[in-house]
């Protein structure tokens, strides 16, 4: 571990706490974690772990601890409404800033994970009803640093918007011949598995759990959603490996989930069928699940990719996805477990000549009719866009189509289609747009509210909202993302990609956080020590704030998506998927480009949205430029809302994007000396590749469209 980068928890981030007197009050394993963190910081910075009765600068206490020191008792006794409306840090009233449940006073209703933070009479106090809250409160103080010990601050309650904040690892035990140890992994091998076995030393896993807890993540799944033969055994004879991981992450409030193969009753149980309505199948899952909980009592549940890209599923038996999900939900329910059932279901063996089949429609077509049929502990996990984590996609219409189902929204932290951790691409601005999208227009709830569910939706519906029309609102399934971590010394290959992991956890806790402020937080912690932090902060903002849009400029234009090299998905290949069975086409010809997904003349996909979006996307006059080619097939001369033509927009953005990549590298070159030389060199090496790749994208995309259209660049720049 000595050679592993501390990411956002370098020792320096604990200086403010470590150099003071801190009292920790309460019992339980997570309180012990808090105590150990404080003790470690104090050992380094000469502070004191105070004993009850001692003076303290910081008190971290469970509300049940007695006796509380005066400052903590005063906070506990504060009248109701002292901290009322205390949301988690963003505009309340919208789900993006929603805290779950209203505080009945400064302290009260904090729940399993919430805490209240105040500074009174020179003492900083964190109170929590439950140990996990104390842990999250500690990390809040870490984030504040010296600021936590300045002027008095009023009591403020903090609770996570999402109950489940989860990272999925697409890690294989065996090295897959094509996908490697980690599917879509760009950070070395797996931290859990190595060459067919468990990693053994779990130091790295513990450190990971600590980093995640500091962002607010509370769940991980430890194997790939494509469950191959070896990995299927994690459910049965290799369960001990999963239990070992659960032991390692438990001290940081993280529960372990497992991806399972829907055909396990056949592959592992020797049954002739995996039919979800078969009694023997149900009995097999029930017995297997009972063993799982006997081994891992706080096991989180199963993740399932079924009938998707070759994975087995209920369709083989003429059953629905609700039948499949409910089978597993039923056996998990007695233990409080959940099944995350993925909605990523489409025909990946499509005939490219068939223009009536639209992959973007598939998830809605399969799942929307099943709304209301899923058990309470079945969470339908929906990718944020209808296709597959492209640089720009509209929000999936499934998210608005299932008000009576627990929905989780799935993001992709690993940069499969956004530069594979070789390009700088800070994704929080994209996620923020997704979470803030309001499927029913300005008066309706946003995506964050729908993932939060229940109360948050009703609160933000105030009146006139649509989901309640259909009856009861389900509790939300939370936010899930595919992790970008591996056994790389910087965790994420590209050191700056750590910011994406950090931002994901924080947005799952407070979906309304501003991406720029979030980046500030990450920079402040990660580069807590260093010669000129302000200059470094400026440089990093210049490099990262707009990096997603820069990436968008030099890659596939106007929301059309893909155009990547098939298989590994890195770098440009405009026609790479055009004549394949995957359903991801752009239909460029000599006259125009884009996919007609209108109701009037296309695939009808726009009809999957409620108003106003159904109409906004349908009409060429109102469809946003950045999604134009996702929804419409238009001539190259079509004039965008920006005033430019489609073809000129393609040229302009590709020249500009590649130029911006070069600027990004220049900025980093000037920052040499402001960070550790090895980290600087790693980022520089990645930037060299980004600049090369951005030029390649620019030249291939521009050449392709120039050759198709014959339209010259208005500025006469060089197109090959
Ligand atoms: C994408 C990705 C696959 C992954 C799949 C999924 O298609 O390329 O590697 O398995 O998404 O989300 O299941």
UniProtKB/TrEMBL annotation:
Residue span, Glycosyl hydrolase family 67 C-terminal domain: 492-717
Gene3D superfamilies named among the record's database cross-references: Alpha-glucuronidase, C-terminal domain, Chitobiase/beta-hexosaminidase domain 2-like, Glycosidases
Protein's UniProt name: Alpha-glucuronidase
Record carries keyword Translocase: no
Domain Glycosyl hydrolase family 67 catalytic: 157-491
Listed GO CC annotations: extracellular region
Family named by the database record: Belongs to the glycosyl hydrolase 67 family.
Keywords, ordered alphabetically: Carbohydrate metabolism, Glycosidase, Hydrolase, Polysaccharide degradation, Xylan degradation
Lineage: Bacteria, Bacillati, Actinomycetota, Actinomycetes, Streptosporangiales
Enzyme active site: 309, 388, 416
Gene Ontology biological-process annotations: xylan catabolic process
Keyword Zinc: no
GO molecular function: alpha-glucuronidase activity; xylan alpha-1,2-glucuronosidase activity
